[in-house]
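Example record

Each entry pairs one chain with its bound ligand, acetyl coenzyme *A.
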Amino acid sequence: MGDAGRTVVDVPRIDKGLDNVYVKETSICFVDGVRGRLLYRGYDIRDLADHSSFEETAFLLLWGRLPNREELARIRADLGAARAVPPAVLASLRRMPKDAAPMDVLRTAVSLLGMHDGDRGDASPEANRRRAVRLLGSVATIVAAYHRIRSGARLVKPDPARAHADDFLRMVTGTRPGASQTRVMDVALILYADHSMNASTFAATVAASTLSDLTSTIVAAIAALKGPLHGGAIEAAFEALRFIGRPEAAEAYVLDVLGRHGKVFGFGHRVYKTYDPRALIFQRIAKELSEAAGDPDLYRVADVVQETVVRELRAKHIFPNVDFYSGLVFHYLGLPPDLATAIFAMSRTAGWAAHVIEYWEDNRILRPLDHYVGPTDALYVPLEDRS
Ligand code: ACO
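Structure tokens for the complex follow.
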């Protein structure tokens, strides 16, 4: 029954949080929240983290299969070319407030990109896959360029010959990263590339369902990702580690937050009721990087926070999620904490686009209901008669 046919006396069951609502069938991503498994197109995330590259993973998500040599070379070249963003977008980055949040800058700049999209008229799946690759390239440059601009540093031009992770680190830091740093960045991008129907993917899907354009769906997704209950948790979790400072202070911090019925950021998940496999990979990398840097304190703080939260909240199935250790990894890579969520977006654009393109194969406008509980007989009082 459409909502026009409903009356206010119906009392529906409200699915707050939409926990058990399925909005589509998918062959992109599977999250097994009980066994702690994550698959992209059937491939285990641990295998992809061990063997794949971001370019290959993006191809896998968008085209549905692993690329052959030629296809891999092509997506790598296309991504490289797309890192050269339109000059008008770069010019607008220079005009943005220097203290703006990178996610606000990214949301605005991606919106601008949409107006510089050369083949705006073509909404075929193949055109949208190409558009997605262009967005992936541009987003990396926007994140890096805004950081350079706000720091008063010279912009570093993208180098289309380099791998995406390598070029991104170079564009942010201004120096050539080592092979191991590039590999860590690549793995981080692989781990963040998709995660089924999470809040930002759902936001993108809602926008897509009205037959809006791909770039607009990514803007909607970025808006949803920003919040601290979703991608914004990386920065919140990392700032908490810095605030705690010493491993000896970590247990008391957690007990204090929980005692006030607060949330410890980087923990809990709607789907995982065990360890998030991405958190375990990020944990291992953070440990290795902290040892290599001879700077283990923050890592040790994180471990005590983790032990305490898991001990205290195991009954509620609260475990570390992907955002708990990733902020530490970005820190050890020399990246500022407030870029973390924008880096997440830079990777997740692949997944968002894949889901939107899939949804369009069998589109139906998403239009849920809300249960009206307000008055039904309000009498309009002219302004001059109101007290
Ligand atoms: N710290 C302390 N308690 C928690 C946490 C946490 N991080 N997460 C959940 N809980 C508790 C809740 O208080 C609730 O307790 P109650 O039943 O006594 O009221 C119970 O566990 C269930 O949690 P909900 O918030 O109802 O779970 P929901 O599925 O709605 O939320 C969410 C999931 C938003 C991720 C939540 O766990 C949270 O707020 N975590 C902190 C933010 C965070 O890390 N977000 C990143 C998620 S991963 C990602 O987006 C990439």
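Strands lie at 29-32, 37-40, 43-44.
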